[in-house]
Design goal:
By secondary structure, the protein is of the alpha/beta class. The chain has 2 domains: about 1-110, 2-Layer Sandwich (Alpha-Beta Plaits); about 110-305, Vaccinia Virus protein VP39 (Rossmann fold). The chain is about 35% helix and about 30% strand. The strands form 3 sheets. A 7-stranded mixed sheet has the order 10-9-8-11-12-14-13, sandwiched between helices. It has a 4-stranded antiparallel sheet with strand order 2-3-1-4. Strands 5-6-7 form a 3-stranded mixed sheet.
Amino acid sequence: MNWKEFSVLTEGVCVEAVAGIFHSMGSGGVVIEDPQAARKYVSEKWKPESVSEDFLNHEFVVVKAYFPEDRDVAEAFTRSIEAVEANFQVKCSVFIDDLSNEDWEENWKKYYHTFKIGDRVVIKPSWEQYYAQEGEIVVNIDPGMAFGTGIHASTRFCLRFLDQYVRGGERVVDAGCGSGILSIAAVKLGADRVFAMDIDELAVRIAQENVELNGLSDRIAVQAGDIVESVRGQHADMVLANITAEVVVELIPAVAPVLDRGGYLFGSGIVDSRWPSVKKALQDNGFEIEQVLQDVDWIGVAARRR
């Protein structure tokens, strides 16, 4: 299958809105390239050769999404971007390119390498070799056309929360599972079972493939469906919501009855300007905020149900 790659060059203030448009249109994957965050991590953790020098010198953020070439979404997308420009008083430059599966795979292999988050979690792309050190757990991942590589701050926040809070035997719901990276990490860190869902059927297929790659098909169930509706009626010790602030706010009232007292919601993908609305929704629905992580403009929260 061939794809259309939509790239939006803009300012960070409207990144979440653009990503939300892509998600609402059923994109098969969203990528956020934030050079400010990349410069920070190149200096601290990453090997400079892993990141394009041209990208590092940019001051704008790029939001990319992918649609099958037979889907005609350009007109609707253009209208939505015009609304974003008017609401945020910013300029968005849009580029649309043809992309084959082979092009996508080669791009990932060029820039996506094994890396570690926290003390225990190692994220390893399927095409690289890595031998785990004592105490490490390795998540084998092939992102395909799905969001969730571990590189972006939003995913790293949730991985850090899992590393910190999973004690063993937990039932976990992964709302908006993308590539399945968080579900797999949760089980490898000791969770008993995970119910994962995503509105995008392509993401579900890729997540299922990654679950099989890690040998966890008996512990992780993945299905397609509306995130909020799929959460209702579940029973969990932890809920993962690495999505957008808008969806996190909508999800919180549905999550509260799913968790027992002391259960956790890990929310991420939250631009700092939207944090007040997420914080209020948590407090209004009986959650106590235990930890907030921030990286540039992005926020992640660990909240415990009272």
